[in-house]
Amino acid sequence: MPFKVVLLFLHPTFGVLGTLAAVWVFVEALNATDANQRRIWIASLTVAGLFILTCFFAGWFYTVYYHGGDQQIILKGPVPWAHSFFMETKEHLFFIPFILALYLPFVARLRLSANKPARLMVLVVSALIVLEGLALEGAGAIINWGAKTALAQTAQTMTSPANVEKKVR
Amino acid sequence: MMAPTPNTHGPSVDAEKENTAAAWGLSAAITVVFNVVLAFVKDSWPALNSVMASLTGHHWRTHALADVIVFVLLGSFFTARRIPGGKLTNGLAVTVGAATVIASLALGLWFLFV
Known about the structure:
The complex is a heterodimer of chains A (169) and B (114). Chain A contains 7 helices and no strands.
């Protein structure tokens, strides 16, 4: 498997794991006691770590490989808005859950069972990370579909009976 | 960042942790809005996009660095100055939530219509 493809698969993998870790933080915070306080803090560090990895691998793929490859294919296909809307939004939207993920450990280390505003902050921040993470994954699927549709159209054109006949002549 | 423990450090350590959480929470809310404003300005002013691209080789990398720098600088500044008052409040949680929702919707509408 080419390195570029490995890189492409790594960023949504870490993104999904980061989103799942945010679900973990949310559920633990709903039931916050002194007994699970340390677990909440560890889960929040896991969210931050996984989003840092997502940023690193997504940024690597996007800045090095995307423009010369997938973007050109999508823009020449039947759904160019998969890039012009979904990718353009996704590349900037990502920074929002990223910043929230970096912030989460600062508030998750407080004693949530005794501090209601801190517990509310953890619930709000982790829920937003989950919702934005899901939106980013959905956008990624549409971008992937945009490239696939463009390639399918090209393959159809090349293998249509009229074109095959032309080549034979 | 110290690991959390039940309240065995005394009130001053907890108060300091809460001051830090409040300060960095406000910083996160402002950074989220800054991120979207930078995206709008960059998208409508190609010269800025080019300058950002020339700094790190790609405008996205510079954008990421700018967001992190703003987050860290504001977080450190607010912590030192005890802004917004050294305590977490429900209002601050609502501010972070509202900033995130409004910024995300604005970003989507911008790339849909502009």
